[in-house]
Amino acid sequence: MSNESLFKALSSQTRIEILKILSSKELHLTGLAKEIGISKPVTSRHIKKLEKAGLIEKKVIGNVHILKAKIQNLEKVLEPFKVKSIIEIKPNKSIFDALKQIPNIKLEKYGKNMYIKSIDGEQGFFIYEVDGKLPKKPINEYKVEKKIIIDLKKLVTINKKNITINIKKEK
Q1: Residue 21, by phi and psi: left (phi above 0), alpha (psi -120 to 50) or beta?
Q2: Separation of CA 48 from chain center
Q3: Tens of pLDDT, residues 69-106
Q4: pLDDT score for 97
Q5: What's the start-to-end Cα distance of the chain, in Å?
Q6: Rounded distance, CA 96 to CA 114, Å?
Q7: Per-residue DSSP letters for 60-78?
Q8: What Rg do the C-alpha atoms of the chain give, in angstroms?
Q9: 81 DSSP assignment
Q10: Could you say which residues of the chain have pLDDT below 50?
């Protein structure tokens, strides 16, 4: 998957609509075409571009191809923008000990645990991954025993629903 094919795939409102639909359910091509209101050949061309970008997964069951969105691949487009740092700590020190060496990372204590409060002045809720996996320990309890790669991620809201609430007029 190249960023060029990913951006090309996301440049169409129809393909974005396809991803929205397939992120909540799996469908075959005919059902998808019917749901968006376009022909099967046109839907198929859109699916090919989304597949090339790595955003659609096909499950083959006999002659039927079931389509499903792979939204997690959108995160890969941001990979070139990551700020990378290399630091050293003594054996069995915590991730907290490593992070406090990096300027512009603010840490805060809640109860007995330390959490990331802000990165480069940007406040929010942050999580960390170690070698691509979410640990079950706070940063001050995770002891580093070997070389690891830590990814810090800000949790951002993604609207999955937009609900309008109207007020009934009383008679």
Answers
A1: alpha
A2: 22
A3: 887 777 777 777 778 889 999 988 999 999 999 989 99
A4: 93
A5: 59
A6: 7
A7: EETTEEEEEE-GGGGGGGG
A8: 22
A9: G
A10: none
The number of residues in the chain equals 171
Written as six digits, the tokens of 26 are 């799996």
Q: Quick one: which of 153, 23, 166, 144 has its CA closest to 75?
A: 153
Q: What are the structure tokens assigned to 71, written together?
A: 């939204």
Q: CA 76 to CA 11: how far, in whole Å? A: 17
Pull the structure tokens for residue 21. 């639909």
CA 43 vs. chain centroid, Å, equals: 25
Q: Is residue 47 a contact partner of residue 18, using CB atoms and an 8 Å limit?
A: yes
Write out the two tokens for 98.
Answer: 């490593």
147: CB partners within 8 A, 6+ apart? none
Domains, the chain, with CATH or none: 3-76 (1.10.10.10), 82-155 (2.170.130.30)
- Which residues have a Cβ under 8 Å from the Cβ of 64 and sit 6 or more positions away? 28
Q: Tell me, what's the pLDDT at 136?
A: 92
